[in-house]
Amino acid sequence: MNTAQTNPSNPSEPLTDAEVVRRVLDGDTALFEILLRRYNQSVYRAVRAVLKTDDEVEDVMQQAYLNAYAHLGQFADRSRFSTWLIRIAVNEALARLRKTQSASWSWGGGDEMILQRVETMAPDPEQQASAAEMREVVEAELSELPATYRTVLVLRDVEGLSTAEAASCLDVSEDAIKTRLSRARAMLREGITRRAGLTLETIYPFGSSRCDRVVANVMAELART
Q: Which phi and psi angles does 123 have, rounded to 5°?
């Protein structure tokens, strides 16, 4: 591991975010790359949730990082650096969104569904193909959600931010986050179900061969008795 990225008091431990920030502010600006690489995925997801398409995402990410660097001295270490950074990225994405369209921010209640990340646990090509197809379905439905709901869902269920952290990122109340998340989960669940053409009546299918086998076994047992 690069010694510039490790804690001097404990070389086996990576630098904390606060330590990186302090050293960057002290003039070791090259270490800012650590934070970029550490949070690129989270920032991408947050920005992508707002902008919906990839067209402007990288530009917004870059500007968000530049904004964060310019205001690095304002990070007071009272919250996680990732939360502070994501809030900057979301604000930049919203600013870009307002330039291109009139964003409609409405919200309400709804049922809950836990969004599960689709992960392949074994290198099985069939499982990988199935996981990829399911991921495409989830991503397609997620992109159809209004930005209000989509952003909250990504911050809470994908990035794992707490309700308080998400509220801080979006500058809304915790109650608003809870309501939007509940509604977003319900909308996503309904969309996935609709896209897949599924209804409760279609689950646990009982095929004809299985039906024939059960009937034959029962009838054979009855004949013996």
A: -75, 55
Rounded Cα distance, 87 and 115, in Å: 22
In tens, the pLDDT along 39-53 reads 998 999 888 888 867
For the question of whether the overall pTM of this predicted structure is more than 0.70, the answer is no
Q: Which domains, ranges and CATH numbers included, belong to the chain? A: 1-103 (1.10.1740.10), 104-225 (1.10.10.10)
Q: How far apart are CA 78 and CA 80, in angstroms?
A: 7
The first and second tokens of residue 209, run together, are: 């061969």
Q: Cα(59)–Cα(107) distance, rounded to whole angstroms? A: 28
How far is the C-alpha of 106 from the C-alpha of 78, rounded, in Å? Answer: 30
Q: What does the block give as tokens for 155?
A: 């911050």
- Mind listing the pLDDT tens digit for each residue in 162-220? 999 999 889 999 999 999 999 999 988 888 777 766 544 554 455 667 567 766 777 77
Q: Is 146 within 8 Å of 52 (Cβ atoms)?
A: no
Residue corresponding to tokens 């902008």: 51
